[in-house]
């Protein structure tokens, strides 16, 4: 019943102990990183002539779509989403460059 109540507010992920709960909570600090990436994309678009309102709406929409793909992730979902990037494409290039820089 408690899980159902919290699922109505978002995604409830029950874990067996407080240590796991605290580790899960630590992931929320990635929110600022996500928003900073969105802001960087919006800024790049506006710096390159795209209307500010259009840039904000587009970036918000694209990131919402991207994160929806993983909203109901299972144990292999994220690995599969990374692996499905087009070989030699821009998404794979960004991943490769960030791996080389030590981001992953």
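-> sequence recovered:
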């Amino acid at each position: 019943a408690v899980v159902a109540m919290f699922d109505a507010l978002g995604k409830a992920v029950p874990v067996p102990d407080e240590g796991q709960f605290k580790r899960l909570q630590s992931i929320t600090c990635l929110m600022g990183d996500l928003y900073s990436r969105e802001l960087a994309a919006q800024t790049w678009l506006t710096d390159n002539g795209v209307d500010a309102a259009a840039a904000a709406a587009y970036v918000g929409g694209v990131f919402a779509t991207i994160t929806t793909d993983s909203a109901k992730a299972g144990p292999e979902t994220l690995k599969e989403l990374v692996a499905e990037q087009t070989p030699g494409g821009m998404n794979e290039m960004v991943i490769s460059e960030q791996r080389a820089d030590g981001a992953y």
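DSSP finds six helices and no strands in the chain.
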